[in-house]
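User: Could you check the structure of this?
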Amino acid sequence: MDVPGTMRAVRIAEHGGPEVLQPAEVAVPELRAGEVLVRVAAVALNNTDLWTREGAYGRPGDPKALSGWRGPIGFPRIQGADVAGRVVAVGSGADESLVGRRVVVDPAIYDSEGPDANPVGLMGSERDGGYAEYVTAPAERVHDVTESPLTDDQLATLPTAYGTALGMIERGRLREGETVLVSGASGGVGIALIQIARARGARVLAISSGSKIDVVREAGAHDVVDRARDVVEQIRAAAPEGIDVALDVVAGDLVGEGLPLLREGGRWVVAGALGGYDVTFDVRRLYLHNAQVIGSAMHTPAHFALLMDLARQGRIRPVIAATFPLDQAAEAQEELALRGHVGKIVMRP
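Assistant: Sure, the predicted C-alpha cells are below.
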C-alpha cells in the first residue's frame, strides 16, 4: 500500500490546558525492525489523555510534580492510546501477512516479555500515539480483529477502558455469583466493568447519578445507586449481605466509607482517583476481615488477549457517546472533561 511522506497529527509541546493541543503536518513515523505501520481509522479518548496533557500523574515522593503516565514526557508528543485501524506496512522481521488486516493496538509498554508482564508505559505518553493518520506499534502488540462485528469506532474504545476493566476484574478474581460494586459507572471504564462483570455472571451494583442512571441500567447493571444521595446507605439496602468485589475508579472518600461494606475476604480494586488520591480508611476493617485493597493499572498481555477474543466474538458492545474529527481534538478533550456523556468519545483521523 502506498504511504505518504507526511501526515496530519495533533501534538502537545508542553503540559497545560486544551490550548496546548496543536494540529501539525509531520513526517509519517519510520518503521523499525519488528514494527508495523497502522493507518488510524479511529482513536478513542481517555481520562489519561487529560491527565497526561495536564501532567497530573505526579511522581513517587512528589505527588504534585508535572508528569506523564509514568514519568517525564519527551515533547513534542502525539497523544492517543486507543487505536483501531489497518496495517499498511511492516518493518523487517514482522509478519507480512498483517498488511491489510484490521487491527487493535495494545497501547501498553511492558516491563518484560511474557503473558503476565506489567505495563510501565503507554502509547500517547511514553511513545507517540494515535492522534494522527498513522502510528507505529510493535508487531506483537497488534491484534487482528478483521472478523469482528464491531465497528472501527467501537474497536477503538477497547484498549484502555476495557483493558483496564478486564485487568481490574482479573486482579479482583471476580467469580460467577458474586456481588460487585462499580463506581464511576457511566464512564468508559465503568460501562466496560458492567458489561464484562455481567458476562462473568456477577450481580452488578453500580454508582451513577441523574439522567445517566437509566443508561447505566441499560448497560447491564442489576441495581443503580444514586451518588447524589447517601451512597453507603443505598448500597447496604441493595446488598445487605455485603459486597464481594468493589471495582473503583473514583477512590477518594468512597474507599474509607466503602471498605466496611466488603464481605469476609472481599477485594477492593482501585484503578483511578476521580474523587481524589489522598485516601484515609480504618485499617482494622482490612486485616480483621481478610480484605484486600488492590491497585490495578491497565492490563497484562494475557488480559488483552482475552479482551480481543471478546471483541472478535462481539460479546461486548461499547457505547459511543460522540465522535469528532482529528482537528477538533481540543474540543473533544473539553467534552470529555465535562463528564456529561455516557460511554466513549472517539476521533476519526
